Amino acid sequence: MKNKFFKATLILMIGSLFTKVLGFFIKIVFTRIVTQDSINLYSIIMPTYSLLITIAQLGLPLAISNVIAQSNKSSKKVLFSIIPVSLLINLILILLILFIAPFISNNLLNNPDTYYPIISIAFILPFISLSSIIRGYFFGKQKMFPHTLSNIIEQIVRLFIIIIFLPKIAKYGPIYTVSVYILFNIISELVSIIVFLIFAPKNFVINKKDLIPDIKIVKDVMGIAIPTTSSRIIGNIGYFFEPIILTFTLTLVGYSNNFILNEYGIYNAYVLPILTIPSFFVLALNTSLVPEISKNSNNKKIIIRRLKQSLIISFLIGLISNVVVYIFTDKMLLLVFNTTKGIEYVKFLCPFFVFLYLEGPLASTLQALNYAKYTMNVTIVTTIIKLLTLFIFSLFHIGLYGLLISEIINIFAIIYLNSKKIYKILK
Predict the structure, then answer these.
(1) Cα separation of 33 and 15, whole Å?
(2) Tens digit of pLDDT for each residue in 274-305?
(3) What is the span of the domain harbouring residue 54?
(4) Which 3 state secondary structure label does DSSP give 38?
């Protein structure tokens, strides 16, 4: 059991390292090929992008992983009970997006240029959802290599597509560039699905019975998925309203729309990627932690040991990374993005982002112990706190620093509330 946990974590970490490196190459290529206007447009659309993907996935990958790890039900039956549900949700969501896209772009984001990128997001959702569901199946089996390989190949394909086609597309302006860039996900997700299918068990035969959803399985999965995804949706709603509140408040105190769009673009395109470089290590650890704790949910000693190990590793990784980033901020920004924009934001956030990596192990442990509803409540509270503090501090005429301060407060609020709950459960 112990060896399996560390083996799974190690495979995910190695794979995630390659994926992160490839992801950085993609960011480098993207930021150097397209104009600053395209970068800003992509940054302003990202909160909407994240929210729609979260709704489309509905927390199903994690829930499937949990159900497969905990129950004796046929993994194949679990998989084929959930796929039709997911496709139905995605169909409804696509129709809804097509209907409300004009309102989102014109009234909420206050930027008509975002209309076509939003429409583009709608068409990639089914592919991302299907890929994620199959990934959840392999996670539940604690088979991490298919996920690792699919991620690497997916990123390689995406990189080649961008290198070959993006320079030609960029000539047509920011709207066309960002829309097509989003649609590239269809190809990369299809490649990921094909890789997963290659690793399907040899005796994986699909019968007519398998295609009939099991209502009990659907209820079990949804019982985990809905509270889990509710938490993520609430977090993403907060992220969605972040640029809306920021734009409204900073405009109110005298900043121009051009300044706000440019600085928010710098924050999302340059600052956050540099600060979250080691996130792939922690994500790999958290992914392995969920099925491990689910299987040992009645053994407090193992849970405490695994949680401590995850917290220590996550903190050390975050500490080393942020020290390096703080010392070499200008060099790293130049190396990765060929710019020093955002250097002051990076240095301001570095000391606090060390603690960001403690959030994952704490939340994963609570979810694995079926406290997803509590994590949802924590997300509601901390999202409200973040948006309120964003509004209040932005009134002080300190530019984007109101957003940075609200981000710091949010990190510590999440850690405090989740660690307090885990202490009560495990004491």
Answers:
(1) 27
(2) 898 877 677 766 666 666 676 666 778 888 88
(3) 2-426
(4) helix
